[in-house]
Amino acid sequence: MKASAGLLGGLLFVLGACSAAQEKRLADGSWQIRCGESMQRCASRADMLCGDAGYEVTGGGTRGKVLGGPTGYRTRVQASELIVRCGANDASSAEDAPSSLPTLPKAPAPTQCVPGATQACVGPGGCSGGQACREDGAGFEPCDCGEQLPRTTAPAPAPAPSEPPAPPSAPPASEAPGGDAPAGGGWEEPRPPGEG
Q1: Mind listing the pLDDT tens digit for each residue in 123-145?
Q2: Contacts of 135 (CB under 8 A, 6+ apart)
Q3: Of the candidates 8, 35, 31, which has an alpha carbon nearest to the alpha carbon of residue 20?
Q4: Is the whole-model pTM more than 0.70?
Q5: Is 117 helix (H, G, I), strand (E, B) or coil?
Q6: Within 10 Å of residue 82's Cβ, how many Cβ atoms?
Q7: For 11-96, CATH number?
C-alpha cells in the first residue's frame, strides 16, 4: 500500500511538472515544446510524447528576462523551449536525417599584442632593435636592429720573431769613460790598484 502511494505521488509530481509544458507538432513531424522556467520539464514532456522510440534534440534553449524597473523590485524569469524529433535514436533514421543544428563559427584566436604596437628587443648578436606586433595580433615580428655597422677590430699582434735577438754588444771605443780605450777595442777588467 505504501509503495503504491509513493508511486502514485511520484506520478502526480511528474504530471504536475509537465502540465506547464505546451507542445506543438511542426510541419516536418518534429515537436516544439515550451516549458516556462525548466528545461527539465521540456525533456520530460519529450519523453512522454516519443515514448520508447526516443528522441533527438534538434534545437532549443533557455532565454532569461529581468522584469521590473531599475529602482524597484526586479525578478528574473526564464522561458525554455525544446525542439525534438521522435524515433531519432534508431541508427538508420539518424544517418538519413540531415542535421538542422547550425554550426558555430570558430572563435578567433586570442591576440598576443595590439596590432602595430612596437617594443624594444635584443636581436641576433646582442644588437639593440625594435619589433612590431603583426597585423593579426598573433605575436611580434622578428627583432629589427636596422643597418648593422661593421665591427672594428684591434690590430693583430706582431708575429713572434723567428730568431732570438742578438745579445747586446759592447759600446764603441769612443764612448768609453775617460776617453781611453784599450788597444783591443773592448773593455778591460778593472785591476786592483798597484797592479798594472
Answers
A1: 888 888 999 988 888 888 999 88
A2: 115, 116
A3: 35
A4: no
A5: coil
A6: 24
A7: 3.30.110
The conformation of residue 187, written as its DSSP 8-state character, comes to -
Q: Is 177 helix (H, G, I), strand (E, B) or coil?
A: helix
Residue 153 CB partners (closer than 8 Å, separation 6+): none
Percentages (nearest 5) of helix, strand, coil residues in the chain: 25, 25, 55
- Give me the amino acid identity at 34: R
Query: Which cell numbers hold the place of 23?
Result: 507542445
Domain boundaries, the chain: 11-96, 109-143
Residue 38 to residue 29: CA distance in whole angstroms: 24
CB-based contact 169:185 (threshold 8 Å): no
Instruction: Please give the Cα distance from 126 to 183 (Å, whole number).
Output: 72
Strand, helix or coil for residue 43:
helix
Which of residues 24 and 38 earns the better pLDDT score?
Answer: 24
